[in-house]
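Input (structure):
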């Protein structure tokens, strides 16, 4: 999963990237494992040789360009490729780091960036709409229908954006989403808003207040303390733990932020516990057993016979897949079974 870090100048994007990697690694991009407490427990129980966590790649982008100016071609490419966007909002006060808008005001910055994204999308949608409308007028009857469908989706998107609403919260149909997907629209993608504060209590308050006003589908607000987390990550463990307690920071550090990446993208996780490996597989909600099998190995999908499924906590209770089977707790599911979050899946194939 690829994510782009966006935000106003000095909001803390680079500091966040470094906090995630527990110290600077030297580049504007980092791939890190996402914590998974269920996988921790499965691994503690089965003691495999390898435990494989889901991963996410974060790209640190330059500051959001002022006044509707374009991003550099490289930044623009990264932005269009990212599956989800992480908007870093400054909530820390620090006189030696001036805010580009003067006062520190998280809500104003969030509104400004949200509007900027909507305007950029509106620009893309309007230009495409013109093109498609022309094409539809001169289309042969066989092509007219598909042009009409695209036209309709674009018109709906345009109306939404003109009303300054993000597309991600508009309840678009899967078909509309598909029709709009080639245009890399910013407001269609999941948005994680990281409220960067120096005090976890203040961060949580701001984050909850904004969530109650602007929250919705594929929109998650999460408080972070990027600078403090970065400093703590570079201290000896014991010392860092003591500071954490004193400062009221969560013991898991950036864990909550990293887990919200999966939440905001509507990802569910299934697990495999085979031989020497325990592994978490992040997949989109609605993934079928056959699609899950093909993710593990194309041979598994080709020779798919059936899937054996058990929720992770039930497996931990009974101990082993054999024991689960003996007690009749291992369900048999076919190709079309929709994978549930927390399933442990064993695929049987030819
Ligand atoms: N006190 C405090 N300072 C922070 C925090 N996050 C970042 N800073 C400081 O703010 C300044 C800007 O942080 P950066 O991480 O470089 O911000 P950025 O968003 O990458 O900035 P651009 O790349 O210029 O857009 C640096 O001096 C950081 O040390 C924070 O949570 N608390
Ligand atoms: Mg930066």
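Output (sequence):
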């Amino acid at each position: 999963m690829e994510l782009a870090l966006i935000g106003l100048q000095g909001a803390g994007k680079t500091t966040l990237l470094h906090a995630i990697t527990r110290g600077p690694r030297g580049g504007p991009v980092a791939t890190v494992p996402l914590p998974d407490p269920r996988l921790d427990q499965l691994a503690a129980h089965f003691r495999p040789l390898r435990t494989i966590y889901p991963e996410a790649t974060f790209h640190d982008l330059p500051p959001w360009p002022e006044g509707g100016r374009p991003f550099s071609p490289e930044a623009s490419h990264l932005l269009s490729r990212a599956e989800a966007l992480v908007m870093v909002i400054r909530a820390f006060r620090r006189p030696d780091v001036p805010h580009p808008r003067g006062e520190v005001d998280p809500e104003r910055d969030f509104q400004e960036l949200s509007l900027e994204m909507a305007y950029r999308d509106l620009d893309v949608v309007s230009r495409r709409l013109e093109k498609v409308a022309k094409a539809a007028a001169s289309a042969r009857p066989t092509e007219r229908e598909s042009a009409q469908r695209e036209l309709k989706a674009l018109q709906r998107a345009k109306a939404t954006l003109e009303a300054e609403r993000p597309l991600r919260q508009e309840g678009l149909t899967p078909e509309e989403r598909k029709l709009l997907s080639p245009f890399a629209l910013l407001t269609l993608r999941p948005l994680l808003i990281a409220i960067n504060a120096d005090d976890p209590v203040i961060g949580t308050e701001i984050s909850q207040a904004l969530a109650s006003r602007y929250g919705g589908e594929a929109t998650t607000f999460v408080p972070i303390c990027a600078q403090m987390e970065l400093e703590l990550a570079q201290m000896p463990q014991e010392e860092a733990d003591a500071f954490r307690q004193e400062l009221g920071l969560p013991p898991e550090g950036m864990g909550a932020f990293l887990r919200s990446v999966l939440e905001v993208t509507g990802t569910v996780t299934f697990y495999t516990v085979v031989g020497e490996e325990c592994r978490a597989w992040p997949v989109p909600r609605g993934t079928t057993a056959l699609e899950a099998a093909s993710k593990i190995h194309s041979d598994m999908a080709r020779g798919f016979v059936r899937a054996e499924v058990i929720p992770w906590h039930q497996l931990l209770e009974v101990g082993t897949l054999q024991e689960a089977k003996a007690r009749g707790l291992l369900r048999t599911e076919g190709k079309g079974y929709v994978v549930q979050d927390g399933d442990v899946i064993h695929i049987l194939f030819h």
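Notes: The longest strand covers residues 267-274. The chain has a mean pLDDT of 95.
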